[in-house]
Amino acid sequence: MTTFWSLFITVITLGTIAGCAALIIWCSKDLDGIAEGEDMGHEYDGIRELNNPLPKWWSYMFWATLVFGIVYFALYPGLGNFKGLFNWQSSAQDVSNLEESRQLLADSSGIDQYARELTTANAIFGETYRKLAYKPGTDELQDIPEIAKNPEAIKVGQRLFIQNCAQCHGSDARGQAGFPNLTDKAWLYGGEPQTIKATILHGRIGNMPAWLDAMGPDGVKEVAAYTLSLSGRKVDAQEAAKGKARFVVCAACHGTDGKGNPAFGAPDLTDNVWLFGGSRKAVEETIRYGRQGVMPAWENILDEDKIQLLSAYVWDVSNADNRQ
After folding, report:
1. Is 61 labeled as ligand-binding?
2. Which residues of the chain have pLDDT under 70?
3. Which architecture does CATH list for 205-295?
4. Quick check: do 117-188+299-323 and 205-295 share a fold?
């Protein structure tokens, strides 16, 4: 944090405490020269205001809160770059890459609370992850479909999902605009067990180019009409026919039949499943301006056994209908 922002935060914090203290003092004094209990001369909806001081217990509670705040900021970080007398920190704020993070996590005796808690958690639950992910008595991972048959493994995989993936895909794995629904069969890169694992391990980068400059406004509308018609949507036939002729540039990724290509992560346009919305306006916007998406890689964040359990959970929720 730069000196400017450090001073800015410090001034705001201490200024707020000082302002609250001044307000308490002001409210505790007889500024109008009116004796306690006398009428202040104010009326609100028939209610007269009397010159009564704040209750003592209330004032003491405010002062205790302010004192607590001052002591807290003296002991713990909270005033800009000042780390507090205890020199405590919740996590390593100066880490700039994963390698530095791993090195710090190797030493759990420091002041980094996150490192200590993570090391403790791995010591407690590490054997559980290994037991569920590996074949008994071996260093060989179980197949993902086999892991999915174990209810306990799925529960652990679900917790890993909620902790690491729910921010984008939702706690129910049904996604949201721009983030795929993992419970259906509309996989951009394929829904096979090892493909799901590869996606989690290495991440994905999706890029749909913008076509406004190449097609023009009318061309965008025509291609949108044809694209919608591929999934059975009702559109203007003449407009869709013109769009079909222009669709040749889209076929390089989505295929001449519009069924997509998992090798590129190009979605199937015939299933009426839309990552960024299936309205006419949303589809036109996708064609006009393009779309970019990034799925981060987790191979340097989660251990292999955790990724195996997480992959089993994702594969399991996408195949729930097969078990019914």
Report:
1. no
2. 30-32, 90-112, 114, 321-324
3. Orthogonal Bundle (1.10)
4. yes
